[in-house]
Amino acid sequence: MSQSLNDSEEMSLRTYAPVVSSRARACSDGFDRRLHRRLSMIRHKVAVMSGKGGVGKSTVVVDLAVALALRGKKVGVLDGDIHGPNVPFLFGLQGQRPTSGPDGLMPLTAHQNIKVMSIAFLLDGRDTPVAWRGPLKHSLFEQFFADVDWGELDYLLIDLPPGTGDEPLSVAQLLGKPLWTVIVTTPQDVAVLDSRKAAVFGKSVDMGVLGIVENMSGFSCPHCGAHMDVFKAGGGKKASSELGVPFLGRIPFDPIVVRVGDQGIPIVLKHPHSKVSKAFSKVAVRVDEAIADLTEVGLPERLP
């Protein structure tokens, strides 16, 4: 049964018709072959999730991508937040358009040769909303995975919107196993509560949970050096212990992250010796090690 569209959805579908193909086309005989070929060239697929918004997940994705690239990894980033795509802004790529290559749609290239794709590149303007229901979003993910020429990658990081709805379900369905996830939270109880749901969701769809990152964890006054736990502390580590998943580390709160993010430059590049950058580098090492360890022993059991 076909799904009726309201006026805003019809506008979006007309606007992106050259880019987002119909469901029938995506499910053609060649789709599975294209998808398998693309995914076979990507060693590790990592979905970065959070239980709620406002925890700095997109910033974590961008800086983690740069930290991995600085370790010599070939990295791609897929902006999976269809309704609020921020990755191009954080990479300084806003306003740019992808081009068609001989083997598909070409991702844009950011710092450290990181390949980036986002629906933001396909919109008419930065204020253009995307008002789509689940089937249209799923079709877009099909094209992002099967028709974008990602090439050979060590890591494809997928920045998912908050929660456990259509987008993470589509990603889990299309990518299959092994698919890894990193959960981002801030220390306060309300954020940790929702991050626990994201971790349980990941296990329920057979993702390998690499661990929890506690973002905005502690602030050091630049004038007197006094330490303050603005959003409490330790919630992410406590949740990881209770859920039986690794704790990947704490990222300090630093206003510089906001300033350089607004400039489209990840802090790991702009201020490589800062506490925040060193924390991201440690998280990158732990992600690498966690994948190696879990690959060796196999995916962990589902959470009860």
C-alpha geometry: globular
Strand-residue fraction?
15-25%
Q: Runs with pLDDT <50, length 5+?
A: 1-26, 300-304
Oligomer: single chain
What is the name of the CATH class? Answer: Alpha Beta
Series of H and E elements:
HHHEHEHEEEEHEHEHEEEHEHHH
Which whole number gives the mean pLDDT?
85
Major sheet size, sense and barrel closure: 8 strands, mixed
Cα distance, first to last residue? 36 Å
- What's the number of domains? 1
Q: Going across the biggest sheet, name each strand in turn.
A: 5-6-2-7-1-8-9-12
The Cα radius of gyration reads 19 Å
The total of helices stands at: 12
Helix share bin: 40-55%
Q: Which architecture would the CATH scheme give at its second level?
A: 3-Layer(aba) Sandwich
**Care to count the β-strands?**
12
- Going by CATH, what is the homologous superfamily? P-loop containing nucleotide triphosphate hydrolases
